[in-house]
Amino acid sequence: MSDFTSNFWSIYVTALTLLGIFGCLLLLWITARKKVESTADNTTGHVWDGDLMEMNNPMPRWWMWLFVITSIFGLGYLAIYPGLGNYGGQLGWSQRAQYDTEVNKANKELEPMYARFASMKPEDMAGDAQAMAIGERLFMNNCAQCHGSDARGSKGFPNLSDGDWLHGGTPDKIHETITKGRVGVMPPMAAAVGSPEDVRNLAQYVLSLSGSPHDSLRASLGKEKFGACAACHGMDGKGNQALGAPNLTDDIWLHGWGENAIIAMINNGKTNEMPAQEGKLTDAQINVLTAYVWGLSNKPGAAR
């Protein structure tokens, strides 16, 4: 009912619900009092197929009382639980409160398991088999929907198994990202760059920064336009982790590679959000998840 914007809808639902219940009781009462004139053989006089006659027997009492009991139960239920518009019920029950109670109970039961990792550094937890098994479950339940079950991400979702980090890959930064979330914004820059040809030239220059195939003539013309981007990405294009600005000199393309993808980014910009897990996960769970994510790119032989 929180989606309703006025009391009208609350009153409407309440009235419709109560009218339905009392209407059912009224219909039963009227039906029970109505008498149908019958013939001497206790039939209504209706005959089908030559010999199929409708008897004039009253409804069974158990059938009548079943409807009455159901209606009384419905009224009692609506009195103690939500169901009548904005009325919350005598018990004050809600789905959210029930969910929070069950989550808090589960977290309480899991505290002894996480207590073992409370004094461990993320680097130490990354080498602990039990901690990593728990971290993997946490990752699958809360992170894999975006970053993939193998943590390699996809278009628009960063790869967590390499050494490329928008905001830094230290345990502290990973912990901060998981806890508070991130909002990355690339503003539309076409107006600052110039004409469509200037944007295209700039796209070729950006491709040249990473050694990607490019038009060298257009890249040379686009170099002077890169000044509009340098405030975030740096004059050398290596990015700025304090701002979450990506490094343009490597071969990692979060939102797609090629001239068209870069032009679309310059023209339209992009906003990406990593949701905060604070409040959803406990501090102990975030610590273990931090160690797991850090360990994904800090294994022997992992890409740097």
TrEMBL record:
Its main location: membrane. Its cofactor is heme c. It is found in: Cell inner membrane. It comes from the Bacteria. Keywords: Cell inner membrane, Cell membrane, Electron transport, Heme, Hydrogen ion transport, Ion transport, Iron, Membrane, Metal-binding, Oxidoreductase, Repeat, Respiratory chain, Transmembrane, Transmembrane helix, Transport. Heme c 1 binds at residues 143, 146-147, 274. Gene3D superfamilies: 6.10.280.130, Cytochrome c-like domain (1.10.760.10). One of its GO terms (molecular function) is iron ion binding. GO terms for cellular component: plasma membrane. Binds 2 heme C groups per subunit. Residues 130-210, 217-297 form the Cytochrome c domain. The chain crosses the membrane at residues 6-30, 62-81. GO terms for biological process: oxidative phosphorylation; proton transmembrane transport. C-type cytochrome. Part of the cbb3-type cytochrome c oxidase complex. PANTHER family: CBB3-TYPE CYTOCHROME C OXIDASE SUBUNIT FIXP. NCBIfam families: ccoP (TIGR00782). This is Cbb3-type cytochrome c oxidase subunit.
